[in-house]
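Minutes, project check-in
Item: structure for the 209-residue chain
Input as provided by the requester:
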Amino acid sequence: MTQGERIILGPACLAEGAAWLGRADPRLLPALDGDLPLRLRPDGFGALLDAIIGQQVSVASARAIMARLDEAGLTDRAALAAADEERLRRCGLSRQKIRYTLALARSDLDFARLRQMSSDQVIVTLTAQPGIGPWTAEIYAMFALGRADVFAPGDLALQEAARHLLDLPARPNERALRQISAAWSPWRAVAARALWAYYRRVTSREGIG
């Protein structure tokens, strides 16, 4: 079970979280102004594959690779598991991501069971898979499972947004941002959405949120 964890279901949840965050930490108010991106998507194999493809590449590059995989019929778990490396290379995957995506497709990961786990258990389970680090697991928990109290402190866009918004002397590292974000619990995933949106505004660059 999710043990009473909040689940983001729609805009009303974001509004509730934003109102709470604005009271808890008024420094966030400039980022909370306006509509926040919901970005929920169905959970399962496709969502995690998408998160792996999105590692360390731009949003545009990740979308292009996923489109080529889809055109090749390789977004289906069974089809991907049976694919040879050359087909995946032609879709734009690096050698490392070929290894990760094949490991995911051929794993015994039970996506239905993940829904019943706590967010901490989800992250532990996912990071046991090859090529899935904390960032990928946290993104899956936030956007595929809708967990309201998950943050991704290792995300460079979140770090840079926090530096600007909180007027920090330097960009916080993962450990520092994790400590900062503790004050935003139980709505850390809403804070993350606000920071990603703020990052786009102040840098004119595209972040995940």
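Outcome recorded: Residues 11-39+149-203 form a domain with the Endonuclease Iii, domain 2 fold (CATH 1.10.1670.40).
No further action items on this chain.
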